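2 proteins. here.
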Amino acid sequence: MVVNSENIDNREASTQPIASPLEGESSRDAIRRSQRIASQLHQLIAASITVVGLRHESDILVNLASSAQRVFDADVAVLTLESGSVAPLRGVARRGQAARCVGPDEFSDDVPVARTGVTAPWEDGPWLAAPMLERRDRARGLLAVRRNGGQFQDEDREVLTLLAQMASTSLAATELSRGVESRETRLRILVDTAPAGIVEVDLAGHVLWWNRSASKILGWPPHDDAVTIEPRFPASAAAELTSLWDEVRGGTPSGRDLVDVEIKGRRRHLSTSAALLPSPESEASSILMLVDDVTDHRRLKEEVRHAQQMEIRGRVASSVAHDFNNLLTLISGYAEILAKDFHEDSRSLEMVKDIQATASRASMITAQLQTIGRTQSLEPVVLDPVAVMASNAEVLERIVGVDIEPIWSLSAGAGTIRVDAGQFEQMLLNLAINARDAMPSGGQLRIAVDTVAVDRARSIDLIVDEGDYVRITVADTGVGMDSDTLQHCFDPFFTTKGPFKGTGLGLAAAQRLVESSGGSITCRSQPGVGTTFEILFPKSGDTAAEAFDAPVVERPRGSATVLVADDDTDLRSLMVQVLGRNGYRVLEAETGELAL
């Protein structure tokens, strides 16, 4: 049997599979799809790396819109931001054009809008859109691409979703970063402008950081990166601060009052508190301190305490002055009766006049005591200080004596003031006497009156209102006062004249008069140079009342009946005698009830 080998070969060949043209085409599409997906993923990675360094929403929108246009080879890619501080905003990338950020009114294409509750991509005509999810059910915007004449595949949806998630994450990170920076800025400003000093030291007490108030309180330079020399706490506070830090390192917040700390040549009182400052690893790495300058606060407390003491002393003095004034009334009254009885006995009459003069001086002291105690009411009138001084010039020059040269500088147009006339003259008299006593070997006494304007800054220092003031200056070239004496010169009962030479009431009464009239009185003095008192009274726009002399008339003798009621037996007896000597019939009673 002969076998045809050619036939056998043909049969074997006919049994081999023949490749279909459709199968070859499908393989090529799969390869191209894989290459396109790889290219898209590569561009996604590049976009994610680029967007990490962006800090502004507009930059993120532009960059990711441009990335989406390249990834999908789209005609247009749009990334919209519809919520947040800078919304609404859109990043637009067109084929062949540079991407840019525009407002919604500048983009005219029919861009899809985010759909409520939709979390998956969707097609809207030629557009493929994916939401930028802020939360599971809320979108902050969307990413949409348009490709005319081309269809979108399932993998395109997945890639667009990744890009939308990347955009949402980047925008959220930017918003969070801005919030953190804003809070840090507010905290930094708050700390730096805090009125109390804030200082951070390490566990060994070395200064690490301090705020602006600490620089002012402790005399340190402002803190910045250029500071290379570590500031030091005052040496006089080192022991107290070391003890404070030891307590704080033990885990207990603590505080100290640092008294008489020398800072830049000045003695200050500081209040400090401290606590451990934990690090992010929850381990204490430094100590945070609060430092406050309480010098002015302590001084104010001392001044309030001193004012309360002076108020008590003034009330006691006023009460004593009231009783003492009653006794002086008796002395003066009986002295006047004796003066009438001794009108022919010149020697006895002279002694009676001495009694009256002494009682008059004593009455002036009681008036000052009542002024200090604020029981004597003021009767302010409008007067011209220049005219008052001119009328009293001769008296003042006699008081200061021939060894002291008075220098007058009175401005006629200074204006008028409203003040109690009697106490104003008494104030001038007291200032002249003080100047005389400060110049035992002679000197110069300058008395000036002029006008001065007080601005806002000076009104705060003097505790007066802004405006025009009449200034009265009384300056001497005497022995002067040191700082301690100057600090207490207006205190009631404070005097440097020694026993039985001064009451310490003149300047206190002057201060009360001036301040009650809305003005101020200040004193400047230097040992060996002299003392200057500057008095400011508010300038009054009224015209001063003209002084007139009351006519001297002969006192008529009475013939009526007078009822005298007083619980002070001595005063009642005096009034009965005086009225009886003047022709009156007097009925007396101890109380008002008995008088009725």
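next one coming up
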Amino acid sequence: MRKIQPHLGFLPLLGCLGLLPSCTATAGREHRGNTSSASNSNGLGPSGTGTGAGGGTGVAGMGVGGSGTAVVVPPGAVVGPTMLRRLTNIEYRNTVQSLLGSARAPADALSVDSLTNGFDNFSASLTVPPAAGTAYAALAASVAMNTFTAPACAAPMTETECAQSFIGSFGKRAFRRPLTPDEIIVYTGLYTDQRTRGDHRAGLRQVVQTMLQSPHLLYRFELGSPNSGAQRTLSSYEVATQLAFMLTASTPDDTLLAAADGNALATPTQIEQQARRLLSLPQAKASIQRFLLGFADTLGLGLLSKDAAVYPVYTSQLRSAMEQETARFVDAVVWEGDGSYSSLLTAPYSYVNSDLASFYGITDPGQGVALVKTTLKPSERMGLLTQASVLAAHSKPGESSPVKRGVFVRVGLLCQPLPAPPAIVPKLPTPQPNLTTRERFAQHSTDGACSGCHRLIDPIGFGFENFDGVGQFRATESSKPVDASGAITGTLDMDGPFTGAIELSNKLAMSQEAKECLALRAYGWAFGRSDADGERSVVNSMVAPLAANGLDIRELMVAITRSDNLLFRSFR
């Protein structure tokens, strides 16, 4: 098939991509976390084979017309900026799979998506590497030739009429809106041009190949039309696109597009009805799972290396089991349990295979590599924070890290920004056989350049010291008993001493501040930006009616879809 020619009226892909920094720079200006590469950006995330109780992906009361906890989001909230958001690799692959009706998403190589604050969908991080255009073109050509099946042209329609019908229907699903008359003319010309060199099917394949690398597919347009002042009202198709990618990580389905056609996405009630329907679909399971893995900052675990001399037990096989455990666990809490944030932190069970059972020091469930629902040692582990994936992700290659773990709680779970570090950060003493990690970190409390920040971090991180750098439980270190006593200050409802990660998890599970932080991070994830601090009041209003029951994560997602950000943008 031929390359796209400029005279056909298409904006060359790389030329368009070069404009994007100016389009997306308004989102996510204030990054409190680091940006890194995600290891599993080319897949849907780890999924374990479970043999425990439960199953299915529906949510009680979450279908069309379903009734969950009533959430009233006040109008007039601050709305985010207009933006042009590139699809993540997962969103792009899912979209291609949906458009072509294939059994699985394409596996062709794409540039790895970066992580910001643990998530891979923030617009400011979705930059376009130089090789991106080549990768998209190669994938589009591959699936158009090897996966796409051209529909037959039935009489009495001519092949050109069939092609125009296909262009209109396929293009609407690909671009998530009806094509303009000019676009139909251009794509018909593209079909005709290729048809003269081959046949009807070759012409349709060229149309598909071109659409799969079009900026109108690769980017989510959230621009709207002028309303009053700087505010802009999003179109029904832009609203449908937001809903679909937030809750299913894929393009809108036919039901959602039909709602957009009928302008039935214009009110919070209409949007909520579609949100509940989408949450009842199997695709929602993977999308919410990925949010929670990002919230736990474990999406990059596949690239996490450790010092093999210190941790020989940390093999690629064990690392994979850690990933799968956390993915299966969050699925169980959200879709098979009560779906609450509190349960996420306090559940007394997890899903382990033979490798993890040995690593955790519990009875082997006897199912080999399959994950089995298993009760944990109550004195050692409970909920998300004591899982090996989370602990290993917040450690150094050859040792535990009270700093990384303290920052994870302070910033990631409480949404409290930290002061900037000093210009010159003193180095800690290297690990020594006669000193525990806690003893070496005592320098932070005595060094004036460090103490201002580390008094907020280290006392929290010390509470995790019963776990080494790969998350294995330890009662001693350097032939001394581990001191896992900790303390937390500067919070609204958690201040005070604690001992160990289990007690800390219980404090977090009961904390209103922690629940509001989860909601704030979910809100930022939903809209692909990190500058949500100005919207804390509206986010907190979503949490208020849900907090007493532990904060149902599914109902939180519904509440977010009722916010003004689903309908409006501000032009900045």
